[in-house]
């Protein structure tokens, strides 16, 4: 090759250039490998690196050839940057605290200002001044203030609409006060409706207003499942008081064990 056996001036110049680059790369490799090895030891990188890139780190620590300087440099730079930034972060925070102690420049946020104004803790000029510092013009400041005011929830608005509009169709009244998605409206409307509870279903079942099938369906709608439906239906009936049970047992001349059992059914401790 012309680099190994230069015959012309150009070959000679190229060979010297390559030689100089090689020496520079070796010097860089020597410095970078020492720094990389020190960083990996102090940061215990070897314990967490995946096997797939372990060989690359070994080459950076103990390079077998030149021209890895750029790779090693980038490696050291990335690791050092991450390590230093994490290490000095608390220091910078403490510097920030000391700076704010000397120059307290923080002001109330627009949200905090609006909250205090709503609670009558600050006056109107102070409110407008702080909102102005936050970049709000007076009209925008009022909008910001209105945005944090307490506002009725959709269920509350539906309840209001039933009393101040058509109780069977509260949509028109609600839509005047809140932008409810029409797709979601049937869900909101249904959630605001009264529904039969367990006790009411049991009462209707006992009075014969609904049959076994309807009672089971209504109890399932109320959240009961499986055998619990039958248990709840059994709880519909009222058990006679303990005195009547004992009188009935005595008339039937039943044993003491049965009397004690019936007393327990009537919620009396035997």
TrEMBL record:
Protein name: Uncharacterized protein
Organism listed in the record: marine sediment metagenome
Species classification: unclassified sequences, metagenomes, ecological metagenomes
């Amino acid at each position: 090759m012309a680099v190994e056996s230069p015959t012309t001036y150009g070959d000679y110049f190229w060979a010297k250039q390559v030689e100089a680059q090689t020496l520079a790369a070796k010097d860089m490799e020597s410095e970078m490998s020492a720094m990389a090895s020190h960083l990996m030891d102090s940061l215990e990188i070897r314990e967490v690196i995946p096997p797939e890139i372990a060989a690359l780190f070994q080459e950076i620590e103990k390079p077998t050839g030149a021209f890895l300087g750029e790779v090693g440099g980038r490696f050291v730079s990335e690791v050092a940057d991450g390590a230093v930034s994490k290490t000095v972060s608390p220091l910078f925070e403490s510097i920030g605290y000391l700076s704010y102690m000397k120059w307290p420049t923080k002001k109330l946020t627009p949200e905090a200002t609006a909250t205090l104004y709503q609670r009558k803790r600050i006056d109107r000029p102070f409110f407008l001044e702080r909102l102005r510092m936050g970049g709000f013009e007076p009209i925008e400041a009022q909008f910001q203030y209105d945005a944090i005011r307490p506002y009725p929830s959709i269920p509350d608005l539906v309840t209001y609409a039933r009393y101040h509009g058509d109780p069977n169709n509260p949509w028109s009244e609600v839509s005047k006060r809140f932008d409810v998605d029409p797709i979601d409206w049937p869900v909101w409307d249904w959630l605001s409706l009264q529904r039969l509870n367990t006790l009411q279903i049991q009462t209707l079942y006992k009075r014969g207003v609904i049959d076994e099938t309807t009672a089971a369906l209504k109890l399932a709608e109320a959240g009961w499942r499986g055998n619990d439906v039958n248990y709840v239906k059994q709880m519909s009936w009222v058990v006679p008081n303990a005195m009547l049970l004992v009188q009935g047992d005595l008339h039937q001349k039943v044993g003491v064990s049965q009397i004690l059992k019936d007393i327990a059914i009537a919620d009396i401790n035997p």
